[in-house]
Amino acid sequence: DAPGIETQVWACRVGDWAAVALPGEIMVEIGLQIKQRSPFASTAIITCAYDSIGYVSTDKAHDEGGYEPEWSPAGMGAERVLVDAGSRLLSALAGA
What we know:
Layout: E1 10-14, E2 17-21, E3 25-26, H1 28-37, E4 42-46, E5 55-56, H2 59-64, H3 67-70, H4 78-94
Parallel strand pairs: 2-4, 3-5
Antiparallel strand pairs: 1-2
Helix pairs in contact: 1-4
């Protein structure tokens, strides 16, 4: 988990379209994982929503290093937290 950061993840749906709003600047791989798990025909990922927690990198990017992971206050585990949260919200909206 990403200890020490408290923020929000939000989702909504209109018919068979849904959106997940995530805080901070999210690496595209995180959004793609949420889209792959989505029960909706079309899912949008909205970043920098509600909060600015900085860069949120994948665990793999943290292992590889680079600009975003180096400046990511969320650290290792944030990827799983956001993917799981977004996926749970989408499942709830779908009634699953």
